[in-house]
């Protein structure tokens, strides 16, 4: 890549033609790009495997996210993850199903909350909200649901682990409706209570789908489709109960409604046992039949780029150190419009410089394959992409720039100090790199000095990732000292001095120049706002969105 060549017309001979547009539109229409949102342990990894297994993308469950005792984990890219048996990073899985191509963007699966999860949600057209049948809505599910709602992402709800004792189905439906105001419209209804999962009533067709267990849930569970008039003979009173409850739901207005789903007001709902592979085919069918395909995207200036317009893509994640043998860095970009052809030269919207795509990859767990072509909805992994940052746009021919990713309000803060004074230069460079990649937000203040930047994060796991990378990849180990702050707000420059005089508050400058004031507790913040209504403090998400 040359630094001095600035161009908007990197490939002048690639103007789209009519038939090419039609092909792009057709390919876009068959893409389904989604993520699973859930609280840890609800079964996201198990469901991911089950989906890939059903779509024949893998031959045996356990290949994608191996747990202890299973086959090697594919997305374990750091020793740290291996030791804990968790997956921190996002992996993009792509597989064909029926006439469609499914892109499943995996979100980090640990108890901690990180900005990566939010970033992944900027790249999907739909989300599957996975709920543990025994636990109902849990804190992280709620947080992620709010992000989806805020972004207008349609949600399919899946109640998982129905093979285990859990709550009543109708009670779970009520909880979703009452606590988050999302109206569930069940497409399947369980035959058999939680803990005795025999099959489902397919509410759209009226028949009984009976499941059969397989050894260890390692292979696809056989299913029989039994007509309604024979279902009682097959399932007895469990069938009758399912029919009665389904009729109650219909009387309550809980039947599938397309407009409500697409507008985020209602949610198609299914019951599964990901571990036994029950109900997984039905979820894939719903994704294909009901989930929205990629749609036109809107640039910062309000221009609308249809999926069959010239190529454009949005970088939603940058990940380094995936392979400890090759210190590489991959930028993941979601295609919004046009066709991607490996090797062509695109334009990097924020700098106007050309970007060569020689090293495009598709990433399926650890198995990376060279990617030659991609369509709207697909995810491209761009290796050696040192210049790309989350929130960047790449385009061809006609310029476009998509809105940046909101930077979320950090809730954890730690001072970073280099532990090896001879690595001063590496320390500075490393901090800058982590900041640009969005691993952590970096704050500074005159009071603390340049040698003691403050890391700010949505979840503390981001600190561990940062410290690990500083030590292993950058070669400048750091120590982290937690600070007693929990909340950050944006403050106007003229109020900074006054704020700094407050007890339990401190003003710092983020690397993009924004001034943040940190408070020890939400309660302190509230008290301050009550006592000083004339000082205007803005929340971070609102600032980024507005
Ligand atoms: P996560 O990614 O959302 O964190 O959840 P994960 O898939 O790792 O599943 C968490 C635990 O729940 C795992 O058990 C998994 O086997 C189990 N599980 C997932 N789906 C179902 C289901 O439908 N039914 C039942 N009964 N269990 C389910 P584990 O003991 O932590 O691990 P493992 O040794 O079983 O793999």
From TrEMBL:
Signal peptide limits: none
Keyword match Transmembrane helix: no
Originating gene: prfC
Region (Disordered): 1-20
Protein family membership: Belongs to the TRAFAC class translation factor GTPase superfamily. Classic translation factor GTPase family. PrfC subfamily.
Keywords: Cytoplasm, GTP-binding, Nucleotide-binding, Protein biosynthesis
Protein name: Peptide chain release factor 3
Binding residues annotated for GTP, in chain numbering: 106-110
Occurrences of domain Tr-type G (ranges): 29-295
Known function: Increases the formation of ribosomal termination complexes and stimulates activities of RF-1 and RF-2. It binds guanine nucleotides and has strong preference for UGA stop codons. It may interact directly with the ribosome. The stimulation of RF-1 and RF-2 is significantly reduced by GTP and GDP, but not by GMP.
Recorded superkingdom: Bacteria
Entry keyword Transferase: no
Compartments, as annotated in UniProt: Cytoplasm
């Amino acid at each position: 890549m040359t630094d001095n060549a600035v161009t908007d017309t990197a490939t002048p001979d690639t103007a789209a033609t009519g038939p090419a547009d039609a092909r792009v539109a057709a390919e876009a229409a068959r893409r389904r790009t989604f993520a699973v949102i859930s609280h840890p342990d609800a079964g996201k990894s198990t469901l991911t495997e089950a989906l890939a297994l059903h779509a024949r993308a893998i031959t045996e469950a356990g290949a994608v996210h191996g747990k202890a005792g299973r086959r090697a984990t594919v997305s374990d890219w750091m020793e740290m993850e291996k030791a804990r048996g968790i997956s921190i990073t996002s992996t993009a899985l792509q597989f064909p199903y029926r006439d469609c191509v499914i892109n499943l963007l995996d979100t980090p699966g640990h108890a901690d909350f990180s900005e990566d999860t939010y970033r992944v949600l900027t790249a999907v057209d739909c989300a599957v909200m996975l709920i543990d049948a025994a636990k109902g809505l849990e804190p992280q599910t709620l947080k992620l649901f709010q992000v989806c709602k805020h972004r207008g992402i349609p949600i399919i709800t899946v109640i998982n682990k129905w093979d285990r004792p859990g709550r009543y189905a109708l009670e779970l439906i009520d909880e979703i409706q009452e606590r988050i105001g999302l109206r569930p419209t069940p497409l399947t209804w369980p035959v058999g209570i939680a803990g005795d999962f025999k099959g489902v009533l397919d509410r759209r067709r009226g028949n009984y789908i009976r499941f059969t267990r397989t050894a260890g849930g390692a292979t696809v569970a056989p299913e029989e489709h039994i007509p309604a008039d024979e279902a009682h003979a097959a399932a007895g009173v469990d069938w009758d109960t399912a029919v009665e409850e389904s009729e109650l739901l219909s009387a309550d207005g809980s039947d599938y409604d397309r407009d409500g789903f697409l507008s985020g007001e209602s949610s198609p709902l299914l019951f599964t046992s990901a571990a036994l592979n029950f109900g997984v085919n039905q979820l894939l069918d719903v994704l294909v039949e009901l989930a929205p395909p990629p749609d036109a995207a809107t640039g910062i200036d309000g221009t609308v780029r249809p999926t069959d317009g010239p190529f454009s893509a949005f970088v939603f994640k940058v990940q380094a150190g995936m392979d400890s043998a090759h210190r590489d860095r991959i930028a993941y970009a979601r295609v919004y419009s046009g066709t991607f052809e490996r090797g062509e030269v695109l334009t990097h919207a924020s700098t106007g410089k050309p970007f060569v795509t020689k090293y495009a990859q598709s990433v399926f767990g650890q198995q990376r394959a060279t990617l030659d072509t991609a369509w709207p909805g697909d995810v491209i992994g761009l290796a050696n992409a040192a210049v790309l940052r989350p929130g960047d746009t790449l385009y061809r021919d006609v310029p476009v720039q998509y809105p940046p990713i909101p930077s979320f309000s950090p809730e954890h803060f730690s001072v970073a100090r280099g532990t090896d004074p001879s690595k001063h230069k590496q320390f500075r460079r490393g901090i800058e790199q982590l900041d640009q990649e969005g691993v952590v937000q970096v704050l500074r203040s005159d009071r603390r000095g340049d040698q003691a930047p403050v890391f700010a994060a949505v979840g503390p796991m981001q600190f561990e990732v940062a410290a690990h990378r500083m030590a292993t990849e950058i070669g400048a180990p750091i120590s982290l000292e937690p600070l007693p702050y929990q909340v950050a707000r944006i403050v106007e420059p003229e109020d900074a001095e006054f704020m700094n005089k407050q007890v339990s508050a401190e003003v710092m400058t983020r690397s993009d120049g924004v001034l943040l004031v940190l408070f020890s507790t939400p309660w302190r913040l509230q008290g301050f706002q009550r006592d000083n209504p004339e000082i205007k403090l803005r929340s971070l998400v609102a600032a980024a969105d507005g």
